[in-house]
# Entry
Amino acid sequence: MIEIEGIHHVSLAVTDLERARTFYSEVLCLKEMKRPDFDFPGAWYEVGSQQLHLIVHPSAKTLRGTRELNSKEGHFAFRVKSYDATLQWLKKIGADVYENPTSRSGFAQIFVSDPDGNLIELNTEQ
# Structure
């Protein structure tokens, strides 16, 4: 039997590391952390006690090829402290968002995509 303790990290393919760094550092306000010296480019971010790993891989099969915001597409979710503050920040910096404050899931949701189309949900309890 497998006993999972939690999610350690999520890895995402990106095509342009500097463009991705700008999004994850300046839009999502994540703190970049030291990354091992791999033989391929990427960046790691702290997300509470978990991590987000970006891997430069322009021909990855996981790249969606669109920045369309559709909550039914594969995505991962960050829990945020404030729905209103998060939404206000994203609108202030001009990010495209899909708002779903009364989702049937029980979470108030905001969806954004990174420059490569990786879909990200930001949520709070309703």
About this structure: Residues 17-27 form the longest helix (11 residues). The mean pLDDT is 95. Residues 58 and 126 are 37 Å apart (CA to CA).
